C-alpha cells in the first residue's frame, strides 16, 4: 500500500509540473510570427554587446539560437539587419528583415533615450504585425517611481523568479550604450540587403516553435528576473518619430498571417524535450570549454610565458657566458700572440747573436790560418836569406801580422756592429732577416779583405826574398 501511495504521489507531482509547464507555455505563446524571436533573449544580447555591428553579427549566429524567423516562407532563417536612426540624444535602433528587393519588414525596435542628467532609458518594442500592439520589454528600473496599471499583470504568472532591479545610471554603463554616446560615434546602418549578405553568415532551416521554446525555457528565470513586460512607451516621440516616419511593413507578412501560414511552426509539440536537451548539451560543452580547459589554457599560457622568460634568461646568461668566454679566448690568444711574437723576437735575437758569434769565430780561425801560412812562408824565406834580410823578413812578417790582426780586428768590429744592429733590430720581429744578411755581407767583406791582405803580404815577402837573393849574388861576384 505504501508503495502504491508513493507512486501515486510521484505521478501526481509529475502531472502538476507538466500541467504547469503547459500552462506556462500557452501563456508565453502569442500565435504570431514573433514567437520565433524571443525578445527577452534579444534584450540580454543587446545588454552584453559592445557595438551595434557586433550585436547584429551575434543576433544572426546560429549557435546563439535567438533568431528563428522565416517570414518569407522559404524554409530558411531570415537575416536581421540593424539600423540606427539618431535624433539628438535619442537613438531608434530598428531590427529589420528584407523579404525581397522591394519590401522590408521591421521586427522590433530599441528606443534608447538619455536625459540631461545622463540617465538612459532602454525599451525593446515588438512590431505590432509580429507581436501585437504594445509588446514592450524593458529592465526592472529601480529609480523610476510611478503608479502601475492595476489591470496589467506583466510577468505576474512567473513563479520562483528573483527580480533584479537596475538604475538608469547603470543602464548608461552598458557597453553598447557607451559606444553610441561616445564622441565621434559613426552611426551604424547595416550595409547588407536582400541577396547580399556577409560572408561569415549562412542560412539554416528554422526549428519548430516547441523546440525553440524548450531551448529557451532554461533561461526563463534569468529573463523574467531582469526584464519584464511594460504597457506604455517611455519615449514620448515613438509614434511621431519612428512609427510615422521610419517604420517598414510588408504585405507578404500580413497575407501569410491571414492565411495561417505561420501556424505550421506549432505542429510538432513533441520537439520541446529535444530542444531542452540541445540546450543542456550546449551548456555542458560551453562549461567544459570555459572552465577546466580555460584554467588549463591559462596555466599553459602562464607556463609558456614563464618558460619563455626562463629561456630568454638562460639565453641571456649563455650569451653573456659565451661572450665572456670569447673575450677570454681573445685575451688568451692575444697573450699567446704576444708571447709568440716575443719568443720570435728572442729567437731571432738569439739567432742573430749566434750568427755574430759564429762569424767572429770563423773570422778568428781564418786569421789564425792566414797567420800560420804567413809564418811558414817567413820561415822558408829566413832559411834562404841571410841574417840581414831576416830582419827585413821579420819586419815584413810583423807588418803582415799587423795587417792580418788589423783585418781581424776590422772583421770582428764589423761582426760586432752587425750583431749589435741585429740585436737592436731583433726587438722588431721583422728585422731578423736583415741582420742575418748584413752579418753575411760583413763576413764576406772581412774574408775578402783578409785574402787581399794575405796575398799582398806574400807578394811583398817574395819580392824582398828575390831582392835579398840578388844582393847575395852580387856580393859573391864581388868577392870572387
Structure description:
The chain has 480 residues and is an alpha+beta fold. It contains 14 helices and 6 strands. It folds into 4 domains: 1-27; 31-268, no CATH class; 270-309; 353-377 and 396-464. It has helices at residues 2-28, 39-48, 52-59, 128-131, 168-172, 175-180, 209-216, 220-226, 238-243, 251-258, 271-290, 292-384, 387-426, 432-479; strands at 80-87, 90-98, 104-114, 120-126, 136-139, 227-230. Strands 1-2-3-4-5-6 form a 6-stranded antiparallel beta sheet. The protein is globular and about 65 Å long.
Characteristic terms for this protein:
alpha+beta, 6-stranded antiparallel beta sheet, globular, 4 domains, 480 residues, 14 helices
Mean residue pLDDT: 71
- Which sheet architecture does the biggest sheet show? 6 strands, antiparallel
Shape: globular
**Helix fraction by DSSP (H/I, runs of at least 4):** 55-70%
The end-to-end span amounts to: 197 Å
Secondary-structure content class = alpha+beta
Task: List strands and helices in order, with pairings.
Layout: H1 2-28, H2 39-48, H3 52-59, E1 80-87, E2 90-98, E3 104-114, E4 120-126, H4 128-131, E5 136-139, H5 168-172, H6 175-180, H7 209-216, H8 220-226, E6 227-230, H9 238-243, H10 251-258, H11 271-290, H12 292-384, H13 387-426, H14 432-479
Antiparallel strand pairs: 1-2, 2-3, 3-4, 4-5, 5-6
Question: How would you briefly describe this protein structure?
Answer:
The chain has 480 residues and is of the alpha+beta class.
Amino acid at each position: 500500500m505504501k508503495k502504491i501511495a508513493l507512486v501515486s504521489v510521484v505521478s501526481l507531482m509529475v502531472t502538476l509540473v507538466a500541467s504547469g509547464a503547459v500552462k506556462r507555455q500557452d501563456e508565453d505563446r502569442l500565435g504570431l510570427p514573433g514567437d520565433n524571436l524571443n525578445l527577452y533573449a534579444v534584450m540580454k544580447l543587446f545588454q552584453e554587446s559592445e557595438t551595434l555591428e557586433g550585436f547584429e553579427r551575434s543576433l544572426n549566429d546560429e549557435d546563439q539560437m535567438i533568431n528563428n524567423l522565416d517570414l518569407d516562407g522559404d524554409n530558411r532563417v531570415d537575416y536581421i539587419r540593424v539600423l540606427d536612426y539618431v535624433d539628438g540624444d535619442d537613438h531608434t535602433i530598428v531590427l529589420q528583415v528584407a523579404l525581397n528587393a522591394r519590401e522590408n519588414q521591421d521586427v522590433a525596435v530599441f528606443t534608447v533615450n538619455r536625459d540631461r542628467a545622463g540617465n538612459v532609458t532602454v525599451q525593446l518594442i515588438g512590431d505590432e504585425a509580429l507581436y501585437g500592439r504594445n509588446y514592450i520589454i524593458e529592465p526592472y528600473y529601480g529609480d523610476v517611481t510611478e503608479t502601475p496599471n492595476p489591470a496589467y499583470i506583466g510577468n505576474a504568472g512567473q513563479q520562483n523568479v528573483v527580480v533584479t532591479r537596475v538604475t538608469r545610471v547603470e543602464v548608461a554603463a552598458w557597453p553598447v550604450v557607451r559606444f553610441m554616446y561616445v564622441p565621434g560615434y559613426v552611426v551604424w546602418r547595416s550595409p547588407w540587403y536582400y541577396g547580399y549578405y556577409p560572408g561569415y553568415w549562412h542560412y539554416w532551416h528554422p526549428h519548430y516553435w516547441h523546440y525553440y521554446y524548450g531551448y529557451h525555457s532554461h533561461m526563463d528565470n534569468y529573463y523574467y528576473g531582469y526584464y519584464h513586460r511594460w504597457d506604455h512607451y517611455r519615449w514620448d516621440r515613438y509614434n511621431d518619430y519612428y512609427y510615422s516616419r521610419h517604420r517598414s511593413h510588408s504585405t507578404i507578412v500580413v497575407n501569410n498571417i491571414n492565411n495561417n501560414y505561420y501556424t505550421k511552426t506549432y505542429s510538432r509539440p513533441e520537439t520541446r524535450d529535444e530542444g531542452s536537451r540541445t540546450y543542456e548539451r550546449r551548456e555542458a560543452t560551453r562549461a567544459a570549454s570555459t572552465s577546466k580547459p580555460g584554467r588549463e589554457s591559462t596555466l599553459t599560457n602562464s607556463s609558456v610565458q614563464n618558460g619563455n622568460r626562463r629561456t630568454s634568461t638562460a639565453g641571456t646568461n649563455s650569451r653573456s657566458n659565451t661572450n665572456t668566454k670569447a673575450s677570454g679566448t681573445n685575451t688568451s690568444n692575444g697573450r699567446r700572440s704576444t708571447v709568440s711574437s716575443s719568443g720570435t723576437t728572442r729567437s731571432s735575437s738569439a739567432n742573430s747573436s749566434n750568427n755574430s758569434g759564429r762569424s767572429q769565430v770563423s773570422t778568428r780561425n781564418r786569421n789564425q790560418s792566414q797567420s800560420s801560412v804567413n809564418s811558414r812562408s817567413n820561415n822558408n824565406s829566413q832559411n834562404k836569406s841571410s841574417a840581414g834580410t831576416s830582419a827585413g823578413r821579420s819586419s815584413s812578417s810583423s807588418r803582415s801580422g799587423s795587417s792580418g790582426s788589423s783585418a781581424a780586428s776590422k772583421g770582428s768590429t764589423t761582426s760586432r756592429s752587425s750583431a749589435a744592429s741585429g740585436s737592436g733590430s731583433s726587438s722588431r720581429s721583422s728585422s731578423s732577416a736583415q741582420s742575418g744578411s748584413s752579418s753575411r755581407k760583413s763576413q764576406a767583406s772581412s774574408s775578402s779583405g783578409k785574402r787581399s791582405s794575405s796575398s799582398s803580404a806574400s807578394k811583398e815577402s817574395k819580392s824582398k826574398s828575390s831582392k835579398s837573393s840578388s844582393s847575395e849574388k852580387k856580393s859573391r861576384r864581388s868577392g870572387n
